[in-house]
Specification:
Its main location: membrane. This protein is an alpha/beta fold. It has ten helices and nine strands. The N and C termini lie far apart (about 95 Å).
Length: about 325
């Protein structure tokens, strides 16, 4: 009896399939690793570019702030013998948006329109004492009735919700108990049970005011480190009309138009042409003036689709310009 030989099945096709699968897995792994490395490199470049742009923007805005301080210092030198601040002085002229290369180029041929992203710089200096200072509400154990009427008139002019003035007064006196009580303790001492002390008008939301109300009051109110008079040479008509009893917007507008031709040099003499005797009696040195010590410097840098804005509060102490506060706002512009 013969045994027939059994034919063995070849394993070569199986080996070829396993080798092909292994190769595909290796290629996939290599492609994944390469893609990850490329993404990591791209992300690192983006972060480095963002950091560089942020640092450059900060230096540019710092330079703009230093330039504003120099302008205010020169203004103080010129007004040393006759201290008067008005909107006809160089510091009050805003810097219109201009391409940054126009400031950096030595000549027209040194800056190319195709080199790097376009950056635009603008800014302004605003008299902080052109607004009504909320510190006037803290002048004793009770709110001075005149100052309460001023705040109520301002809230009424901007169509703020009823009771807005009462909310602000209650919040301010609760946040600054030492100043409100007239005690000898520093005004900055915080209350242990009351609300946090706001450093600016935006933080009045801590008292319960909504963002829309604060936005309406922003052009007419300010919170400075100490009580200050309103500069009648720079204040808008709304603030002037609210500052004195019996003065309407029409009378305040006459003062605004008249000071363009001739700024007020003296409250007692020059303001008498616009204010009644009763209103003029309220224009004490603590409430009205023709000079200013506090200024708000705003610098804006627009770079492609982003805009970086810096607001600084400066106190002018003779020829020394002291930066008291600084705030930066990074905005994404709509295209």
């Amino acid at each position: 009896m013969r045994c027939r030989p059994v034919a063995l099945t070849s394993s070569r096709p199986t080996q070829r399939g396993a080798a092909l699968l292994t190769a595909m897995i290796i290629v996939t792994l290599i492609a994944s690793l390469a893609a990850g490395m490329v993404w990591q490199q791209y992300r690192a470049v983006q972060i480095e570019a963002a950091d560089r742009a942020r640092a450059q923007s900060a230096w540019i805005l710092q330079g703009a702030l230093d330039w504003a301080r120099l302008i205010l210092q020169e203004d103080a030198k010129q007004n040393r013998n006759k201290p008067v601040d008005h909107l006809g002085e160089p510091w009050a002229v805003p810097l219109a948006e201009a391409r940054l290369s126009t400031f950096l180029a030595a000549d027209k041929n040194s800056a190319s329109d195709d080199e790097g992203p376009e950056a635009f710089l603008s800014g302004s200096i605003e008299d902080a004492q052109s607004r009504y200072n909320l510190r006037a509400l803290l002048g004793g154990s009770t709110v001075p009735p005149l100052e309460q009427r001023v705040l109520e008139r301002l809230c009424s002019q901007v169509n703020a919700p009823p009771g807005t003035a009462a909310v602000i007064i209650a919040g301010m006196r609760a946040a600054f108990p030492s100043a409100a009580s007239g005690a000898s303790a520093p005004a900055a001492s915080a209350s242990e049970t009351g609300p946090l002390q706001p450093a600016g008008l935006d933080q009045l939301s801590w008292f319960g005011l909504d963002a829309d109300t604060i936005k309406r009051l922003q052009p007419y109110l300010v919170l400075l480190p100490k009580a200050t008079p309103v500069n009648l040479n720079t204040a808008p008509r709304e603030v002037i009309a609210a500052l004195f009893d019996g003065v309407d917007l029409a009378t305040a507008e006459r003062m605004v138009q008249g000071r363009k031709a001739k700024p007020l040099n003296d409250i007692a003499n020059d303001a008498a042409a616009y204010l009644s005797a009763d209103a003029l009696a309220q224009a004490t040195a603590a409430r009205a003036a023709v000079t200013s010590s506090y200024f708000i410097v705003t610098g804006r840098l627009r770079l492609e689709e982003r805009q970086l804005e810096q607001r600084s509060l400066i106190e002018r102490q003779n020829l020394n310009m002291v930066v008291l506060a600084r705030e930066r706002i990074n905005q994404l512009l709509d295209r």
